[in-house]
Amino acid sequence: MLQSPLEIIRKILTEQCECKDHITETTHLVDDLELESIYLLTLLTELENHYQMVFEITEDSDIQTVGDIVHYIETHITTHE
Fold first, then answer.
1. Of residues 8, 4, 71, the one with CA closest to residue 57
2. How far apart are CA 74 and CA 4, in angstroms?
3. Most buried residue, 2, 19, 56, 62, by most Cβ within 10 Å?
């Protein structure tokens, strides 16, 4: 069974970034989870490895919530593992 992007993000945040909070699409990465830049980098690297893609996120990108990452994944890939 394929995991949704949200499920994969939850798993990475829990296992790699030590987040214990309930994670939804409206969860703010910095304000709610207090993720430091190293954990954000870890999250994106793990997602890149999982989806075999490159996140092209710049300072102008509006990635602030878990839902923003889910949307980015859903619009930039066509197949999931």
1. 71
2. 10
3. 19
pLDDT tens string 17-76: 888 878 999 999 999 998 888 998 999 999 999 999 988 877 777 889 999 999 999 988
Find the DSSP H helices in 1-81.
5-15, 37-51, 66-76
* Tokens linked to 53: 């893609």
Determine the CATH number of domain 5-76: 1.10.1200.10
Give CA–CA dist 15/36, Å, rounded.
15
Buried (b) or exposed (e) across 35-60, using 16+ Cβ within 10 A? beeebbebbbebbeebbeeebeeeee
